[in-house]
Amino acid sequence: MQPHNEFRFHPQVVQIGCYWGEGAHTELYLLEGDTLAIVDTGVHDTPTRYIAPALESCGRTLGDVDLILSTHGHYDHTGGNAEMVAASGAQLWIHEADARFAEELDYQFDTYFANRHVLAGRPDRLEAARAAFKVNVGQPTKVDRKLVDGEVVDLGKGIRLRVLHTPGHTPGSICYAWESEGLVLSGDAAMGLSTQPGGLPLIYYPADYKRSLQRLQELDIAVLGLGHHYRTLAMPPDSVHFGELVKTYLGACQEIADLIEDALRRSATARPGAGFLEVARNATDLVAQRLPIIKSAEGLPLYGNVEAFYGCWQLLR
User: Fold this and answer.
1) How many CB atoms lie within 10 A of CB 309?
2) For 269-303, how does the pLDDT look when each residue is reduced to its tens digit (9 = 90+)?
3) In CA terms, which of 51, 84, 156, 227 is 20 to 30 Å from 289?
């Protein structure tokens, strides 16, 4: 177990880092208004292992948390929901398009994490993958409020968060924007090159993703808090960007998404009538000319896997 760590980059906002799996890492955010809220909860044991010690450092306990604000419905951000609710009675709020992922965990796996093995031609891996998923996913949790774009979450003490619908990673991915402070907590709405060296971002819906990046680039953001330690070609892994580095980072995310889509289009154009796997393998080779990716035994991106191309493939069909 890695030691807990917290980073108070604003008088009322504390970033809590949590580790899980084999070196994976998720960033959570504690917001101290009249209502004590936490943005995302990590995996199943994150509340006990990381959130509780961080709260203790702030003079708080798990039982003090009033509200869970989810950026999206993937297990590495919602896996601790059930433990948090059991400890504090906190309400769970998430965008309406991702609510089902928090309440139906098999649906979450089948929608996102099963497809990578089927697309790679390895359905034999499905059961082992489902078992590994269940280690971290926690328990299903009832959603108390389904959020929509534009509404404001008022936590008191001046913290008013506008919900920004930023789909692309999931249909219901959202950012929380504290507009008066220029502070945006973006979850996985802007993923750079992924979290792993040699990886690609998990862009499931590329057209939506690029529109969401454009929306973020049009905002006046002074501080951008990410959901993981994301890297780009020119920027080392980091999870909070300040000032001009915000625009630099978002621009790099856009460039990476364009590069992935261009590689898939070029590969498909050069191989009319070819199936997805053949096109994706060639696209992997094209991307590797520009990005430092690691290939799997199937000749596909090892981190980010085949999902990095499949969304683009669907756009071409």
Assistant:
1) 30
2) 999 989 888 999 999 999 999 988 888 877 888 75
3) 227
Cα–Cα distance between 94 and 99 in angstroms, integer? 6
Is 265 domain-assigned?
yes
**Are both 151 and 39 inside the same structural domain?**
yes
Q: Looking at the structure, do residues 29 and 146 belong to the same domain, yes or no? A: yes
Q: If the chain, 317 residues long, is cut into consecutive pieces of 10 residues, what is the mean pLDDT of each piece?
A: 76 95 90 99 96 95 98 96 97 98 92 80 85 86 98 99 98 98 99 87 94 98 98 94 98 97 94 90 92 84 73 81
- The range of the structural domain enclosing residue 269 comes to 190-221+229-317
Cα–Cα distances in angstroms (integers) from residue 278 to residues 45, 264, 274, 275, 282, in the given order? 40, 11, 6, 6, 6
pTM of the model: 0.94
Radius of gyration of the chain (CA): 19
Q: How far apart are the first and last CA of the chain?
A: 45
**Pair (91, 151) in one structural domain:** yes
Q: Is 248 domain-assigned? A: yes
Strand partners, 238: 230
Residue of 92, 173, 183 whose CA lies nearest to 139 = 92
Q: How many distinct structural domains can be found in the chain? A: 2
Counting residues of the chain whose pLDDT is more than 90, the rounded percentage is 74
